[in-house]
Amino acid sequence: MPQLPDDLDAVVVRTWCSLALEALGRERAEIDAINVYPIADGDTGTNLYLTVESAAAAVEAVFAAHETGATAPATADAVRAMAHGALIGARGNSGTILAQLLRGMAGVLADGGDAAHLRRALTRAADAARRAVAHPVEGTVLTVAAAAAEAAGGEESDLRTVVHAAYDGALAALARTPEQLAVLGRAGVVDAGGRGLVAVLGALVETVTGQAPVRGPRTAHGKAPTPVDGGSVVGLPVGGTPVEGVPAGGFPAGGVPEAGVPVGEGPLDCPEDGVAGPAFEVIYLLEAGDEQVARLRTRLDALGDSLVVVGGDGLWHVHVHVDDAGAAVEAGVEAGRPYRIRITHFATESGHDLRVQAEPAQRAVVVVVPGDGLAGLCTEAGATTVIARPGEPPASGELVDAIRRAHAREVVLLPNDAALRHTAAAAAEQARTEGVRVALVPTRAAVQGIAALAVHEPDRGFDEDVVAMTAAAGATRYAELAVAERQSWTMAGICQAGDILGLIDGDVAVIGVDVPATARTVLDRMLAAGGELVTLVLGEDVPDSLADALEEHVREGHLAVDTVVYRGGHQRAPLLIGVE
């Protein structure tokens, strides 16, 4: 039997993220089904899953960076990665609040992972999440988080006692949410966001104790069971102590609302019966200072409701429901630099739009690109794009969203990054369950994606088109230039921090001192094996003169080889090279 942890180190954090993702994956559909507040759009479980997926991916990236080391990453690195990943990948109202909860915990756990630090982390998390919401409402995930923190408070020095107490407190609070929020009581369900948080805390219990919390049988439709003898329902949650308000088996009831049950009424941010709420959900990441964000909160609060702004240290995640989506984005532009902007029309997303939807196209291409410049190029070519910003790879949910936006019966997916292979495969599988025929072309670089897109012909057969695009991508060798961050061993020898690395087909082949000379050497090595076309993709800060010099170099040394140049915008590498 593996030894149980005495504190939350990096390995424990990694395991927690993995188990939380599994738990939300199992319960996603049921949580979606009970999502009636603040908008009955049936996506809370999915949003929480995607948020934790991003957090887990960030933690995995930290471990991947330490693969060659003898020790695991520092706890501080793991918890900060978890919080950052959740922040940049947060989806929806509940996902944004969960990101702030994880950020609040990370601020304490970075200093230690024993029982005392965990108690303080839970309290910090609950307080931070409540401050992030413009108009906090009881009976929501905020209430469940506060109850978990309160239950964990005390003098216990044992980590397992603290996680049990936090889980039990959250469980009991979740069971009481229908009494606190009228819309939940009328629908006969518990709060969806709170139930998701219970799943995340349950994963923490399993991580620390080695045993998953007991989940009892549910009644039909997940409705709350009738109290015994007219009193409160009493159950046995994890830890063995009866908790008032918890159904037998230890897991709060809550399922799909019955037909005809009104779900539109609720306090503060929840629209009254018969009155439509805001039409759009607007989400974006924002680079801005504290003062600018304070003014942004005031402005967005006047524009709509369900306002949640989380983050700090110059990076924020903004979520709001509004009627004027453009005004919400403009407010972000005035405050700083908004990006990853996502605007959802509630009627269309929740299936309540009675207008006739446009017929789907027969075929579309979804492509992941490393910068805004290539996004524009691929959009002009008719593709649907997903931007992978430096250090922020897209999650599978973002790729699924892009496939949906493409609105086609057949979709060719170009991930353009070897590291996205599994993410893209998961997105393709999800889209197939929704009736879309998806082919994944395993492109490993943006230049391969450009080559594949260039031969795409939507009028020919699907299989024939996929074969042609795959062949074009496979015939394209790829390279990129990067700046070494530290001294390390490479396939080309030892590099020093600040050296320019030339990577060909993913391996370091050239170590240089400046970009122009390294680029020339890389080109010569690639063209030594032959080639007809060179593609250069320049980063945001690379001058046009470099492209001119490299084009002349190719022309002088390699007759009959053409060169095309694109501006990639803000991308990780200063230069991408393709030879086909």
Key structural traits:
single chain; alpha+beta; 19 helices; 18 strands; 46% helix
Give a quick rundown of the structure.
With 580 residues, the protein is an alpha+beta fold.
Structure commentary:
- By secondary structure, the chain is α+β, with helices and mostly antiparallel strands.
- It is 46% helix and 18% strand.
- It has 19 helices and 18 strands.
- It has helices at 10-33, 44-65, 75-89, 92-109, 115-132, 141-152, 159-180, 182-187, 192-209, 290-303, 325-335, 346-349, 372-380, 396-406, 421-433, 446-454, 462-474, 515-527, 544-557, and strands at 234-235, 243-244, 280-287, 304-312, 315-322, 337-345, 361-369, 384-387, 408-414, 437-440, 477-483, 488-490, 493-495, 500-504, 507-512, 533-539, 562-569, 575-579.
- The strands form five sheets. The protein has a six-stranded mixed β-sheet with strand order 15-14-11-18-16-17, sandwiched between helices. It has a four-stranded antiparallel β-sheet with strand order 4-5-3-6, sandwiched between helices.
- The protein is globular, with a radius of gyration of 26 Å.
- The relative contact order is 0.08.
